[in-house]
Amino acid sequence: MTPLDVATVPDLLRLLAVPVFGLAAVRDVRTRRISSSLWIPLALLGGVLLLWDALVARAAGPAVWQSEFLVPAAISLGFVVPFAYLCWWFGAFGGADGKALLVLALLFPTTPQYVLGSWTIPVAASPVGAFSFVILTNAVVVALAIPIALAVRNVAAGRLTRLAFVGRPVPWERVPMAHGKLLSAPSEDGGGGLDLDALRMYLRWRGLTLARLREQPDRFRDPATLPDEPNPPTDGAVADGPVGDAGPALEDLVRDGGDRSSEYDDPWGAEAFLEDIEGTAYGTSPAELRAGLETLVTRDRIWISPGMPFLVPLFLGLVAALTYGDVLLGPLL
Questions:
Q1: With 0-12 CB in 10 A as exposed, 13-18 as middle and 19+ as buried, what is 217?
Q2: I need a labelling partner for 134 at 20 to 30 A (CA). Which of 148, 225, 227, 332 fits?
Q3: In Å, how far from its chain's centre is CA 268?
Q4: From residue 208, how far is each of 123, 176, 312 by CA, in Å?
Q5: Which one, of 184, 170, 128, lies nearest residue 328 by Cα?
């Protein structure tokens, strides 16, 4: 059996995207940072294969050209591409998620077929025809399953709370290396909302560790303890290294006094931080930053969102689409 007996050359070349998406998903989980250069070769490959398929379909006749290429390609490029852009524009996707979906729309406009012995995959066909749309709906199904998995895990551990579907509790020591957002506030079960990348930016800017902040929270609420020359905040990535350092002696940074947070115009120096840095610290407001810091210095276990990037469901949706097919509509056909 030759490779051409298994699949067409374009469909075989499309499989090159699978390990790349797998590695990107793993890296996104670990660092939340994906270089844009990763998608350029795949986008170029997708453009070449799209043209290749168009020439083959056009040579096969009007029926194949219209039903098997033109319609699914129009859905892929006319719906999935704008959908990815709009989701990125409105903040539903991260930049890497949107670019990944754009690449998939180029790479998989039509349904590929692979022959493995007596099996032909994907098994379950889709009435839509546009394979990138199938990948997208599969990814949505996977993404919707994540809250259910979270709830099962939390309930099994005896954590019966309204946050069970959206988060998990972690010890405060793990927060500086975690991804996602705080779901805890000191006076209630939820409502903090502080992005953990923004937290790392703040701590690096002040040159403090979370442990030091917890040692003397009353004093560090005082904006007079802000450094005269703040450190570069970076972009909050875990990969940038430890958050804060030993820094100067505590008595050199703070003045005596108890908790006078109600007297401060800018507790924790939240407004000063956001005014000093470039950008918006992931949309964090001074109130969100203060609420998050109060949570972190008063609680030993913190509820955080799972911080699962959409690139992970997208990769799993791609694998499911290539092996099974349409997870959403396939069982109904």
A1: middle
A2: 148
A3: 28
A4: 55, 11, 32
A5: 128
Distance, CA of 118 to chain centre = 38
Domain boundaries, the chain: 3-146+310-332, 168-304
CATH fold, domain 3-146+310-332, is Four Helix Bundle (Hemerythrin (Met), subunit A) (1.20.120)
Q: What is the largest CA-CA distance in the chain?
A: 84
**What radius of gyration, in Å, describes the C-alpha atoms of the chain?**
25
Global pTM reads 0.80
Tokens of residue 318, six digits: 């791609």
**Pick from 105, 85, 103: which is nearest to 95 by CA?**
85
Which residue reads 């407004």 in tokens?
271
What's the chain look like in SS3? CCHHHHCCHHHHHHCCHHHHHHHHHHHHHHHCCCCHHHHHHHHHHHHHHHHHHHHHHHHHCHHHHHHHHHHHHHHHHHHHHHHHHHHHHCCCCCHHHHHHHHHHHHHCCCCCCEEECCEEECCECCCCCCHHHHHHHHHHHHHHHHHHHHHHHHHHCCCCCHHHHCCEEEEHHHHHHCCCEECCECCECCCCCCEHHHHHHHHHHHCCCHHHHHHCHHHHCCHHHCCCCCCCCCCCCHHHCCCCCCCCCHHHHCCCCCCCHHHCCCHHHHHHHHHHCCCCCCCCCHHHHHHHHHHHHHCCEEEECCCCCCHHHHHHHHHHHHHCECCCCHHHC
Q: Please, are residues 284 and 274 in contact by the beta-carbon 8 Å criterion?
A: yes
Query: What are the tens digits of pLDDT across the range 286-316?
Result: 999 999 999 999 999 999 988 788 999 999 9
What are the beta bridge partners of residue 114?
121
Cβ atoms 331, 320 nearer than 8 A: no
Give CA–CA dist 148/207, Å, rounded.
39
Q: What is the sign of the dihedral through the CA atoms of 48, 53, 59 and 65?
A: negative
Identity of the highest mean pLDDT range in 62-66, 101-105, 114-118: 101-105
